Amino acid sequence: MTQYCLHFCEILDHFYGSLNDFCESKGAKELKEAFELVGICMFGYMTDLDTISTEEEHEFVIESEGDLDQLLFAFLDELLFHFSTELLVCKEIQITEFDVKAGKIICF
Rounded mean pLDDT of 73-84? Predict the structure, then answer.
């Protein structure tokens, strides 16, 4: 069941509170896959992804100091920044490098 939230902070709280359940419900076997799905879901809250074509590929490098929570926030913040400045919407996200200890994510 899909639950819509009124504010971006509610989206973070919704997924953070039940990340394991979210992973299981979406078939994510790894934390990396959960991050990919949360990023796609964030864009799904903002627009109808069925109307988006996958014509371009962009690389994002996200670096964050701190824990997993801060890395998730930095990841979503970077995606939201590109949405706000370039009107970029990601229908698919593929993380190619995921290092929680180093606080680094590289994705397309």
Answer: 94
Token pair 């896959």: residue = 33
For 72-76, the CB contacts below 8 A with 24+ separation are: 72/12, 72/16, 72/35, 72/38, 73/12, 74/103, 75/35, 75/39, 75/105, 76/12, 76/38, 76/39, 76/42
pTM of the predicted structure, to 2 decimals: 0.75
What is the DSSP-derived secondary structure letter of residue 6?
Answer: S
As a whole number of angstroms, the distance between CA 98 and CA 101 comes to 9
> Can you tell me the mean pLDDT for 16-29?
59
pLDDT band at 59 (very low <50, low <70, confident <90, very high): very high
CA distance linking residue 29 with residue 26, whole number of Å: 9
Q: Please list, in sequence order, all residues whose beta carbon lies within 8 angstroms of the beta carbon of residue 98, skipping any fewer than 6 positions away.
A: 31, 32, 35, 105
